[in-house]
Amino acid sequence: MEPGIDHTLRGGWALGDHALPPHALRWLRGRTGLAEHPTPVAPDSVLTVPEPELSIVGRAALEAVVGAEHLLLDRNSRLGRSGGMSYVDLLRHRGCGELAVPDAVVLPGDPDEVVAVLRACAEHDIGVIPFGGGTSVVGGVTALRGGKHAVIVLDLARLNRLVSIDPLSRLVVLQAGVRATDAERMLAAHGFTLGHFPQSFERATIGGFAATRSAGQASAGYGRFEDMVDGVRLATPVGELNLGVAPATAAGPDLKQLVIGSEGAFGVITEVTLRVRPVATHTRYEGYFLDGWDKATAAVRDLAQHRVLADVTRLSDTEETEVQLALTGGVKAGAVRAYLRARRINDPCLLILGWEAGSAGELAVRRTATLRALRPHKAVRLGKPVGESWRHGRFSGPRQRDSLLDAGVCVETLETATHWSQLSTLRTAVRGALQRSLNRAVVMCHVSHAYETGASLYFTVLAARADEDPIGQWQRAKRAASEAIAPLGTITHHHAVGTDHAPYLAGEVGALGIDVMTSVKRALDPTGVLNPGKLLPAADRG
């Protein structure tokens, strides 16, 4: 096996020790009624892993393409790619409910092998689950069979090369299996960065970013992932699409945008051509407080509409801000509260602003423009320590979920976006739906991305896990939240559709929109082997 490729992945983030401090547990127990009901990781022996159902001829066809050493049938390899990173996925890996375990894991070595694998799967009635970092939280990599004879996970870990770099045009070609961390390391050697840092950064892959229309924490400065894509190579059971020959074109509709966000249902992305930027040499992150949600969102709206957003512009509501202070604990949190009271901040909302620039002068000009637009909103500055604290902990959320699960916490996130005129209405509706569904839940919200016309809302939920039917507990709450979202905003701003949001897609794009996408899927995937049950479940029949 190639060095650096983990062939025995497991459910959970598993990146270092991120145990909750005692004061955080005490606060959670007092706030949510949490009792001591640990949910430890189940040993492999407790989890049901059925024998592979891959036929002899199907197995032979796949081995002929990738070699026997890259067709994995062992229990650990299959179990480790059973689902993504949602709360429900993590519970199933702890022995709650049933896991959808693939029949095999296939590791192709190049884009041509991916096409050959897809053709073999179409011929032998085998469903294909494209798999990168496995960070989906909406059921996007669940090994559903979709009525197929068998189902494999197509792990792109061996497609891990920087194919080419064009420093003059500031373009790079990366294979889809390149981890985001490795992409940044390889690009830094040439003086470049993608600037794409979602919370899944430590595990996610370039292909996954493209397939799900990912948005990073610095998207206000660097753009969403689809804004970075200049070209894409897509493998399908009927051939290959190579898209993107120029920085702009009028040669019909932009088919790249049909591939980006297709979630493996139209094909498997094998290479992505991306716009890169020079690595920032000067950065500055700061924290500010504003008084109350309405005033705070008005401030962010002004920054967006005056086109002076910082690269990172993140606004926490009062509840999320209070949780951050409570979990900080000690003298420091008390000092911050006293400081805010003295400045008549009664309902504090924390605003993080971060700038990244190529020179001190550029940073100063941009920062001055941002703060000039912020000044009328009477923000109280806490300075660099708060901003730097956020920056250094920006990827800690996924890691802490394992510890929260150990403590018996129901912890999950969901997100949406809408126009400014509907933003507060949407937040109120979603918060109400979650609080009615979950007893004594802590429901936090922040604006993670802002635009001239609107913004995203990102919710984090903490509640005591139900002793009976913990999976159903969250699924009912998520359904209530989704029904609150549907008439007011998009069902997903950057988590994608997967299985969780598929029932709401028609309400957003209309029946005709579903027909259009179904027609595309049937043209590229006539037998419906690609990612069964995701995005367009009804289109999986051949």
TrEMBL record:
InterPro entries hit by this protein: Alkyl-DHAP_Synthase, FAD-bd_oxidored_4_C, FAD-bd_PCMH, FAD-bd_PCMH-like_sf, FAD-bd_PCMH_sub1, FAD-bd_PCMH_sub2, FAD-linked_Oxase-like_C, Oxid_FAD_bind_N
* GO biological-process terms attached to the record: lipid biosynthetic process
Q: What domain of life does the native source organism fall in?
A: Bacteria
Per UniProt, where does substrate bind?
401
Cofactors:
FAD
Presence of keyword Oxidoreductase: yes
Q: Which positions bind FAD?
A: 130-136, 263-269
Pfam families, sorted: FAD-oxidase_C, FAD_binding_4
Keyword Flavoprotein assigned:
yes
Q: Which UniProt key words apply to this protein?
A: FAD, Flavoprotein, Oxidoreductase
GO MF annotations in UniProt: alkylglycerone-phosphate synthase activity; FAD binding; oxidoreductase activity
| FAD-binding PCMH-type domain location | 98-279
Active-site residues, as the UniProt record annotates them = 458 (proton donor/acceptor)
Cite the PANTHER family for this sequence.
ALKYLDIHYDROXYACETONEPHOSPHATE SYNTHASE, PEROXISOMAL
Q: Which family, according to UniProt?
A: Belongs to the FAD-binding oxidoreductase/transferase type 4 family.
Name of the protein in its database record: Alkyldihydroxyacetonephosphate synthase
Q: Which organism is it from?
A: Kutzneria buriramensis
